[in-house]
Amino acid sequence: MEGSLSLFNQEASTSTYAAVTSLHAAGMAAQLAGRWPIPECADPAGHWAAFLDDVTAEAADAGTPAQAAAQGYVPDAAVSDSQQAQSALQAVSAELKSRIGVNPFG
């Protein structure tokens, strides 16, 4: 998921098709990651679930790679979801670091 989101950020301004394709890969990874929730004691505010929801929404709001490429840009809703996902990831990273003393996301 992290690699796909990084690729989206790299490709968003140069290759809309590649950017949206990477978002769809991240969305599928987010759906799979939802099967392994972070325990509530480590993430009481639910930042992990919010992050996964934002990534899934980002992929859905992007449309298909062909549609986005034809338009020539990534829809604003997907870009907004991307910003929310980054915020949620920072929040869950800080929460986990304070609760368990480790940031498992790097």
> Quick one: how many beta strands?
0
H/E element string?
HHHHH
Number of domains: 1
Apparent shape: elongated
Q: Which residue ranges are poorly predicted, with pLDDT under 50 across at least 5 consecutive positions?
A: none
Secondary structure blueprint with pairings:
Layout: H1 2-11, H2 16-33, H3 47-61, H4 65-71, H5 76-100
Model description:
The chain has helices at 2-11, 16-33, 47-61, 65-71, 76-100. With 106 residues, the protein is mainly alpha-helical. It has one domain (2-100).
Produce a short descriptive summary:
With 106 residues, this protein is mostly helical.
Please tag this protein with its features.
single chain, 106 residues, mainly alpha, 5 helices, 71% helix
